[in-house]
Amino acid sequence: MELSEEQAARIAMLREDAENRYAEGGDGALDHSVAHKPHDSAFALLLDGKTSTPVVHDERCYICRDPEFAAMGLPLCRRCPDCTRSGRGDGHIPADDTACTVCGYEDGPDDYPTSG
Ligand SMILES: [Zn+2]
Ligand SMILES: [Zn+2]
């Protein structure tokens, strides 16, 4: 597969990030790094230009810390409806969970009414 200059730069950035996290003691940071696995089916997602924009950040959260999730355009951690309602700040609900890591609130469909 031929990478454009921009794609190659993005992969290099993601690899470096994973290596830094691994160096800081992030066990599995390299194992989980799709940027290191050109034959992984998810690798193409890093190249298609679709990205997600992080809205919250938790330094202890592996999803927030790993820029590959955003680079793949996957759903990222979200604001907590209860924290934002109560003025505690944004809160943090991991993309793979339903409970806020700040207050423990579990969100559900009622928190995200669809319009129309
Ligand atoms: Zn997170
Ligand atoms: Zn919360």
* Shape by Cα distribution: globular
Largest sheet: none
The low-pLDDT segments are none
What structural category arises from helix and sheet content?
mainly alpha
Give the number of DSSP strands.
Answer: 0
Bound ligands, each once: zinc ion
Helix content: 25-40%
Question: Nearest-angstrom radius of gyration?
Answer: 16 Å
Run of helices and strands: HHHHH
Count helical runs.
Answer: 5
Query: Please, what is the average pLDDT?
Result: 95
Distance between the termini: 44 Å
Description:
By secondary structure, the protein is mainly alpha-helical. Helix content is 34%, strand content 0%. It contains 5 helices and no strands. It is globular and about 50 Å long. The chain starts with a helix and ends in a 30-residue tail after the last helix. 16% of the residues are buried. The site of one zinc ion has 7 residues, from helix 3.
